[in-house]
Design a protein that fits this description.
Length: 512
């Protein structure tokens, strides 16, 4: 597979027109296959889609040819495609009256309804409990959960320059091309860069500057406004598979990537990664990750999942299809993973998101570094939530308690209050504030914080609200002002309260 020549991009515009004319798009597939068969494709189950495309329409033909990678009659292919050009460029080969795809072409819907196409190796659609089942060293994958997750959490403010490090089939570069003037895409695997070229061309996007090399070597000392990477983060014994195994001991590749990113960020620029990290016996995982953050950068690190070392080894052995190989070979490889973890004192492996932002405050020695665990549901996309997080950190970094009490706040949109207690009880045991967007956080608050949040509409400074609450609750206003700023700070940090910009407070009115 890794030695197969790839299609030429000479007639991608013509091919794109044919795909769109047949409605070979994400929405078109959903309409044609139905929700259940469409969802089955994400699990690498193709039987429902095969049953749904028994006809001979151009869309049926394209689904079977490029998505399900089944041979189709030559004349059927000619009715759906500019067949001669596709054969000439290498997208399709014809033998014995039947046409076969040479690459996987997968419709992919952009964030604003764009019709895109991701080009990757045959048989390497990601999804399903069995993994991709390939042990080819240079295989290039298509769209998977990791790549869509990274795309969804990436900040999408328009920028002059973006770097997609370890581009693979070009999904992140394709997204970046929509809001970056200049996109650079790198990969250690030269075939991956050719797939990126095809993905961008077939999707109608501007070409990227493609460079071969490892980590930041291909870009020298260049700096960027946005860096994204879905790196080969799997912690494994050795580097069998380029697309997933970093080839460095433990989580060293991810650590190196994060540490070096700071030198390649412009002021205010973001670097966003997916990563695995080790939980090492006798060491707090949060402290390990804080040590990764480069000087001059703020950071927000979110651990989404943790697996023990046995679960982790089994996951990636299934990914490469080793569970279907010779039992003795499988046992040997499993033992190698466990030996590696034991030697390093690794008890489990975390997975999550790492976002860096270069800031003047961090360069002055006042970085904001938040490391947290959040395995709960979130509302994607989260790019805006990432930017809002760092804006809140900027605000809080410059506010002492007196400034917080003088500040004006509003309750964030889609925050609700839940009261928890025994049925019939006069007072709730506790009150929970819950978000219904972004990170969808929930936090337990006392009666003062709940009352404070409930009346925050930007009209009064926080101190005056607390004075009114103290009067209503017969509390000492001085003591209330003294103990409440910490709660206000937490509610702002987690996005429940939003500061009203200086000069933006609405006219003061009474609490009613």
């Amino acid at each position: 597979m890794s030695e197969t020549s790839l299609p030429a991009p000479d007639h991608t515009a013509t091919l794109r027109e044919a795909l769109l004319a047949a409605d070979f798009t994400a929405d078109g597939l959903l309409d044609r296959l139905g929700a259940a068969a469409y969802a089955a494709l994400a699990r690498s189950e193709t039987v429902p889609a095969l049953r749904a495309t028994r006809g001979a329409s151009p869309l049926d033909t394209l689904v079977r040819l490029f998505l399900l990678q089944r041979p189709v009659p030559q004349e059927q292919a000619r009715a759906a495609l500019p067949l001669e050009e596709c054969v000439q460029d290498g997208w399709v080969r014809v033998q014995d009256g039947r046409a076969r795809a040479t690459v996987d072409v997968r419709p992919y819907g952009g964030p604003d309804g764009e019709d895109w196409f991701i080009v990757s190796d045959l048989g390497c659609a990601v999804g399903g409990a069995g993994g991709i089942g390939s042990r080819e060293e240079g295989v290039v994958l298509g769209v998977g959960g990791a790549s869509t997750t990274l795309a969804s959490i990436t900040a999408r403010t328009p920028v002059a320059s973006a770097l997609d490090l370890g581009t693979g089939s070009g999904i992140q570069a394709l997204h970046a091309a929509q809001h970056a003037t200049r996109v650079t895409a790198t990969d250690l695997n030269p075939r991956a860069l050719e797939f990126t070229r095809l993905t961008l061309a077939l999707s109608g996007a501007a070409p990227a500057d493609l460079r071969v090399g490892s980590l930041f070597e291909p870009v020298g000392t260049e700096t960027f406004d946005l860096i994204v990477s879905n790196p080969p983060f799997v912690i494994s014994p050795g580097a069998r598979l380029t697309y997933r195994d970093g080839g460095m001991a433990g989580d060293e590749l991810c650590r190196t990537l994060v540490r070096q990113a700071g030198d390649h960020l412009n002021e205010g620029g973001y670097a966003q990664f997916l990563a695995n990290w080790e939980h090492v016996e006798g060491e707090e995982w949060q402290d390990r990750l804080r040590a990764w953050v480069p000087a001059g950068c703020d950071a927000w690190i979110v651990q989404r999942e943790v697996q023990d070392v046995m679960q982790y080894a089994e996951l990636w052995l299934r990914d490469s299809g080793d569970h279907r190989s010779d039992p003795a070979a499988y046992t040997e490889r499993y033992e190698a993973w466990l030996d590696e973890f034991e030697a390093r004192g690794t008890t489990s492996v975390g997975f999550g998101w790492i976002t860096l932002r270069r800031s003047a405050a961090a360069a002055e020695g006042r970085p904001s570094i938040v490391v947290e665990e959040w395995p709960h549901a979130v509302q994607q996309p989260l790019g805006r939530a990432v930017e809002e997080h760092f804006a809140r950190q900027d605000y809080l970094r410059d506010q002492d308690d007196a400034a917080l009490l003088a500040g004006h706040f509003t309750l964030a949109a889609e925050v609700v209050q839940e009261q928890v207690g025994l049925p019939g009880a006069e007072d709730p045991e506790h009150v929970v504030l819950r978000q219904h967007r972004g990170m969808m956080r929930a936090t337990k608050v006392d009666a003062v914080a709940a009352g404070f949040a409930g009346v925050c509409d930007g009209s009064l400074p926080a101190g005056r609200i607390l004075d009114a609450i103290a009067q209503l609750m017969s509390e000492d206003p001085v003591l209330l002002r003294d103990r409440t700023p910490q709660a206000i700070r937490l509610l702002v940090e987690e996005g429940f309260l939003e500061p009203v910009p200086v000069g933006g407070a609405v006219r003061e009115e009474g609490l009613g």
